[in-house]
Amino acid sequence: MDAPGGDDQLLETASRIYATLLDRSRPLWELWFLTGLGDGRVGVLLKLHHAVADGTAAVAVMGSLFDVEADAPDPMPAPWAPGPIPGGWPLLTDNVAGKARAVGRGVAMLAHPRQVAGTVRTFALVTRRSLGRTSAPRTSLNRVVRAGRRVAFLRLDLAAVKEAAHAHGGKLNDVVLDLWTGGLRRLLLSRGESVAGVELVAGMAVSTRAAADGTVDNQAGTIVLPLPAWQADAQRRLDLIVRRTGRAKSVPRAAAIMGAMVALSATPIGRYVNLHQRAVNVLVTNVVGPPVPMYVFGARILDIVPIIQLIGNIALTLCAFSYAGRVYLVVTADARGFPDLDVLMTGMEREWQALLGDRAAEPVPA
After folding, report:
1. 280 lies in which domain range?
2. Cα–Cα dist 146/155, whole Å
3. Which of 57, 125, 261, 272 is 20 to 30 A from 43, alpha carbon to alpha carbon?
C-alpha cells in the first residue's frame, strides 16, 4: 500500500488479498507482510483455507508462527525430509479405503436407530428452513455475495465486556450478540425497514473439538439462534439473549446441523441452496485468542483482526476475537451490499455505551 497508510488502507489491502484464491498446488495458507503503514508499523496477514483450520486451530497456528516474548530465541529447526510422491495406484487404494470406511460408519449407525432418526430430522429441518419462506425474516441483509469485501472492527476492553456479561448472568458471547443485534437493528432502521416484532436469525459457530484435542483442522458446528431486533433497550435485550443462548447450546446438535449443511452443499442443488437459503440472516462466531501479547521478529502485534468467509447469500458476518486484554468485534461484509457499513459499526458502538450506562464515563485501560 502507499505510505503512509492507516487502518482503513490496511483493511482494504487485506480484503483484496483475502479475495484471491489460494494456489491449490501449494499448502493452503499464506503469510503476508504489508508495508507502507504510518508510525513504523507493518501489517501481517495470515491467510488460511477454512478446510485447514477453524478458529481454535488458527490460534494454534499463530502460536507456532509468532513469539510470546520480544527477545525469544530462534527455535532449532527439526530434521525433516519430504516423503515420496505417491503414485496412481496408492492414491486409488487410499481413496477406495476411505470410501469403504465411510460405508462402514454408515452401516454401524444402523445399530443406533434413535441417532439415525435424529440425524434425519435435523437434515429435514435444515433443508426445510433453507428452502422455505417462514424461517429467517426477509430483510436487506441477505443478498448474493459478490466480489469485493469491506472489513471494519471495534476494539473493546475485555474486562469491561466480561463485567457487563456477569452483571446479567451471562457470558462474553452474550454481550457480543447483544451489540450485534443492536447494530443490525440500527442498520435496518436507517434503511427504512421495520423491526417491529422482527427476530433476526443468526448462524452461530461453536466448537465441537474435545478439550484435549490439539489437532490443526476444522471441527466447528453451527447452532441457530434468534436475535430480538425488535427490542430497543440494550439491557433488556441482553437478558433475553442470555436466556436463549443457555437453551440453544448443544454440541451434538451443532455438529448435526453442520453435517446436514455440508451434505446439502455436496448435492446437485447445493449451489442453489447456498444462494437461496432462508435459514439464517447473518453469521457470528467467537474465538478465544492469545491472552498475552504476541511478537513477530521482536515487534509486538498490536491488533488481531480476523476476516471471515462469506458464502451464498449470507453477506454479513461478525467475529469476536479476544487478544491481550481486548475484544475485537470484526465485521466482514459484501462491499456492494453494505456501502453503509459505518452505520452498523457506529450502532454497535452506541449500543455498547448504552449497555455500560453510568460506567461509560469511566476511563478505559490503555
Report:
1. 103-361
2. 28
3. 57
